[in-house]
Every structure is written in structure tokens, then in C-alpha cells.
Specification:
The chain is an alpha+beta fold and about 170 residues long. It folds into two domains: about 80 residues, no CATH class; about 50 residues. Helix content is about 35%, strand content about 10%. It has five helices and five strands, in the order αβββββαααα. A five-stranded antiparallel sheet has the order 4-3-2-1-5.
Length: about 170
């Protein structure tokens, strides 16, 4: 499935934007009947060369400005197959369809309700934040134990003190 949201040109005319292909078609009508694009491209809009019926080539960059040809007489050493003016116009007229999307129902929408934070975890974090200067650096290893003590009825201060007594003194 190819969409127009692709970040790079993938070698298919369908991956190029209609606006870009319209400009390419204008250059083709002015200078030649076939076009070749740099392949593989690293941008949305690759450089390209328009070729006339006698085989003469004119290069253009991604912004449709003149681009010089290399020593081989091409804009790049890696080029796509030649596309005719008719193929480019067909890609302009028949862009690929967008990916199918789910449609909204006419009924009421179920909204996600925000989950309230666990008050024990909030109290534990607030105590830690207020006292982190003097608490041991590895106290976080006992976070579950502190939460369990707090769920058993202790305050955050009492739970931290209990863990400190058990593991640090």
C-alpha cells in the first residue's frame, strides 16, 4: 500500500505528490516526451531529467530548476526507468486512494475516563521529593516495600523510617 504521506520517493509515480508531478508534466510538455528520476531518492522530490525525441536530456532538481548533467550525460548514475508523458498524466489524474479509515458512528461515543492516581503512590513520591537530599541513593529498590507498608496503614514518613531501620542501620 502506497500513500502520499511517504517521506521518500520509492520508485513509483504514485509516491510523488500531484503538485510535483504537475510541474514535471509542464517541463515534459516544454522539453521532451519522457522523464527519468534519480533512483533511489533520498527526498520527497527527486531530481529528474526530461528526454526529447532526439535523445537530448535536460536536468531539473527537486524544485524544478535547471540541474547540470554529470560526465555520463545524466543527472545521476542511478536512474529509474523512463516514464512517458501519458504515464505521468495518468498518475496525476488517478492518485492512489488513501488507506481506509474507520468511520465515526452516529451514536454516543464512549469516552475514556481519566484514571485517578493512586494516593499512596502520590504521598510516597511527595515524601521522597521533599527528603531526597538525605535519603540513600538506592532507596528506590525498596519502593514496593514502602508502598506495601503504606497500604498497611503507615504514613509515608513511617514507611520510609521503617525501611531505613531494616536495611540501612
Amino acid at each position: 500500500m502506497t500513500t502520499r504521506r511517504a517521506k521518500r520517493w520509492d520508485g513509483e509515480l504514485s509516491s510523488l505528490s500531484v503538485e510535483y508531478l504537475t510541474e514535471v508534466a509542464e517541463k515534459m510538455q516544454a522539453y521532451g516526451q519522457t522523464v527519468q528520476f534519480e533512483f533511489p531518492g533520498h527526498a520527497k522530490t527527486p531530481i529528474y531529467q526530461v528526454i526529447n525525441h532526439r535523445g537530448f536530456k535536460m536536468g531539473f532538481d527537486g524544485k524544478h530548476l535547471l540541474h547540470s548533467l554529470n560526465e555520463n550525460g545524466n543527472v545521476s548514475d542511478q536512474l529509474s526507468a523512463e516514464f512517458s508523458l501519458e504515464q505521468v498524466q495518468e498518475a496525476i489524474l488517478n492518485p492512489p486512494s488513501a488507506a481506509p479509515r474507520a468511520r465515526k458512528s452516529a451514536g454516543a461515543r464512549a469516552r475514556k475516563t481519566a484514571v485517578a492516581p493512586d494516593q499512596i503512590e502520590v504521598d510516597k513520591y511527595n515524601y521522597f521529593r521533599a527528603n531526597r537530599d538525605w535519603l540513600p541513593d538506592d532507596i528506590q529498590y525498596y519502593a514496593e516495600d514502602i508502598s506495601a507498608l503504606m497500604r498497611g496503614g503507615m504514613t509515608a514518613e513511617q514507611a520510609f523510617a521503617s525501611i531505613l531501620d531494616q536495611h540501612y542501620e
